[in-house]
Specification:
Order of helices and strands: EHHHEHHEHEHEHEHEHEHH
Largest sheet: 8 strands, parallel
Distance between the termini: 9 Å
Radius of gyration: 17 Å
Number of helices: 12
Number of strands: 8
Oligomer: single chain
Structural class: alpha/beta
Helix content: 40-55%
Strand content: 15-25%
């Protein structure tokens, strides 16, 4: 088992960084680089060994001419904040709102995702994480674009915060196409932790390496969202134990979780770590 880090966006907000606007978390690359660096370092200190650069919104359509500079800066910030030898993943996100697949350009997103993938590879990322895709055609286009770089490529699907956008059957169908395209790992992310298991089970049926990073769900579930109590993180880990039983070998956290959750995951799963990029498992 290897531990993926937790969210950047909601952790920036928790630390007082305003993220209103289309650039969202990318605003911190120039506006609060020291806070961003500290977040990466906090996850590493908590036990994460896989770190996602803050490139979720460093896209040409969002940042204009400065997108490439900000993308490279985000990778450098992540690399410098974590221990030497730990892996940095380049995040490739949907062009439009990840919870509005109806707005997706579908296959038409390929050219932009190829630009982003190439820039992330040139910036020195160890792997590419196409994440939070709820639109089949765009997710697969991002995967194909990222595969062209020669780096390991992971595809993470979301069904929306509460599983309202896709079904587990949809995950299996999309995942099967991703396997045919040569994906190195399939993941599920940004679904409420209490609703995640059926989606992980659907991906597990495809026989490829798995990963999971769930969100904290509704606030009244008391799994996160500023609830700093250690028992919130422990409840998250109890759910994560089931994902590990199903076959997940990479587990982290998404929106509403934080370093406490990553520490709890690390303490529960600290044995058996390996190079999931090199070995594929």
């Amino acid at each position: 088992m290897q531990i993926l880090d937790g969210p950047i966006g909601t952790e920036l907000i928790a630390r007082g960084v305003a993220l209103d606007g289309a650039d969202w978390s990318a605003r911190a690359i120039r506006g609060a680089p020291e806070v961003l660096s500290d977040i990466h370092a906090s996850y590493a200190e908590a036990g994460a060994t896989l770190h996602t650069a803050n490139t979720f919104r460093t896209q040409p359509g969002v940042l204009g001419d400065r997108w490439g500079d900000d993308l490279r800066a985000a990778v450098i910030i992540a690399r410098n904040a974590v221990p030497v030898g730990q892996k940095v993943l380049g995040s490739i996100a949907p062009i439009e709102d990840c919870y509005r697949p109806d707005l997706s350009p579908g296959k038409g997103a390929f050219a932009q995702h190829r630009k982003t993938a190439r820039a992330l590879a040139e910036a020195g990322c160890d792997a590419l994480l196409c994440e939070t895709f709820a639109h089949q055609a765009e997710g697969l286009a991002a995967l194909e674009a990222a595969r062209d770089t020669g780096l390991p490529v992971w595809l993470s699907l979301t069904a929306g915060p509460f599983g309202e956008l896709l079904t587990p059957s949809d995950f299996e169908r999309i995942g099967r196409e991703a396997v045919a395209l040569g994906v190195d790992r399939l993941l599920a992310n940004c679904i409420a932790a209490t609703r995640m298991t059926p989606f992980v089970e659907a991906l597990a049926s495809l026989g490829v390496p798995l990963g999971v990073y769930a969100n904290a769900g509704a606030k009244d579930e008391r799994l996160g969202w500023g609830d700093a109590a250690e028992d919130a993180a422990e409840r998250y880990v109890e759910l994560a134990e089931r994902w590990a039983e199903i076959g997940a070998t990479v587990i982290g956290g998404c929106c509403g979780t934080g370093p406490l959750h990553i520490r709890a995951l690390s303490e529960r799963f600290r044995s058996g770590a390996g190079d999931v990029l090199g070995a594929g498992v």
